[in-house]
Design goal:
alpha/beta, TIM Barrel
Length: 342
Amino acid sequence: MTVIEQELETTAKMMVAEGKGILAIDESTPTIKKRFDTINVESTEENRRAYRDLLITNPGGSKYISGMILYDETIRQSTSDGTTFTEKLINDGIMPGIKVDTGAKDFALHANEKITEGLDGLRDRLAEYKTLGAKFAKWRAVITIGNNMPTDACIDANAHALARYAGLCQEIGIVPMVEPEVLMDADNTIERCYDVTEKTLSTLFTTLKDQDISIAHTILKTNMVISGKQCSTQASVEEVAKSTVRCLLKNVPSELAGIVFLSGGQSAELATAHLNAMNQNNKDLPWPLSFSYGRALQEPCLKAWGGESTNIEAAQKALLHREKCNGLACKGEYDEKMEEAA
């Protein structure tokens, strides 16, 4: 095994260590402005730094968090005492990650579908991010369910971009997190979500293998198989868990390093309950099932903070509660009664 392969293997294993998951704090500047607008806080660079500071320095967080996905601005910032964010994370045993795509843009000739951009210059950007401390990277593709959507062209194009990105990451010793997100915003049934997720994952892993990506040194970040938000019939926690695991077992190679779920707009408690049910009911899966939540971890914390330094302790307590609940869900040991005690 080469030095780079050893590096990839070590990072990938740490990312999905038992009882731990990934905290996504990689919101782009426009997205975090929307989050700050909900608490009437101006999205200045210092306010963004202060908020990410409280997320990164949360006492006890390293017990449940194995990695954090940072944004370009964030990976260059420091804590209040001057320690770089990446240095602080590494000292706490948390892997720093970096979002490297430049966003989902309109897919030419395919109305209402998206293609993720950011491959131009990516090799050089990854080299810089590695010097800044990044151990893994993330690239998100967006798959929309709708009338005659998704098209094969959209799925194929996004899978190809994910594979090219993954190759550039592995070449330099950065673990690629490949994220094909089937959106849950429409009125589709859970069965329709299953079919689209199956097609997306099957295409993705075929393309990764075609481009000689090491599946064993790759992390999959994916949606759960779930009813669309506007669907009149919402699948139960047990149905979501059962359908998601069935889809993964059928379409994800056993050698994959691990799977982390995105929350995709689910409530904080529901995202935890779904993950818990999967792990509680399936003890012999070929890969760990963990989490890589953004809003489902951050939302209670963001509200508690409200932009006030006097609220940092309360905000960190709210964050730690959600991190603990999801860490336990990784082992199938979460109980919704824990929410009452919070």
